[in-house]
């Protein structure tokens, strides 16, 4: 069972911020073998959704209200530690993120930029593809919206 914590950037402890950046780097840079600038200057505006298990960060997303990143509220940097994916924590962290967008931003329309191979996962959460696939950091992505 995941404990969900939702924090603004100033509310994150130094250790929590370190854990978030370490997890994102571990998956998006090392595991996916993709050199890109993860620390992009947007974390300060985001709400951070932390999925904690046994006092360890195992899942994470960041959320933006409309206009802070995209025209719609959006969820990004969706990540689960590799050795915890079999527990379906991706669904837990995404459902918590969708709920947080309703509660914190009073929004129901959510846009994401999904890695194309995860379309089915996001379809199961109510997201639908919009437009064509595109490359982002040499990885196929698709824009998806949940209304």
What does this structure look like?
The chain is an alpha+beta fold. Helix content is 28%, strand content 36%. Strands 1-2-3-4-5-7-6 form a seven-stranded mixed β-sheet, sandwiched between helices. The protein has one domain: Aminopeptidase (3-Layer(aba) Sandwich). The chain contains three helices and seven strands. The model has no long low-confidence stretch (mean pLDDT 96). It is globular and about 40 Å long. Strand 4, helix 2 and strand 5 form a beta-alpha-beta unit.
Short summary of the structure?
By secondary structure, the chain is of the alpha+beta class. The chain is built from 3 helices and 7 strands. Strands 1-2-3-4-5-7-6 form a 7-stranded mixed β-sheet, sandwiched between helices.
Task: Give the beta-strand count.
Answer: 7
Instruction: Give the C-level CATH assignment.
Output: Alpha Beta
Q: Which structural class best describes the helix and strand composition? A: alpha+beta
Shape: globular
* Helix content percent band: 25-40%
Keywords for this structure?
147 residues; alpha+beta; Aminopeptidase; 3 helices
Strand and helix layout:
Elements: E1 3-8, H1 14-31, E2 47-53, E3 56-64, E4 73-80, H2 89-105, E5 110-115, H3 119-124, E6 128-136, E7 139-146
Parallel strand pairs: 4-5
Antiparallel strand pairs: 1-2, 2-3, 3-4, 5-7, 6-7
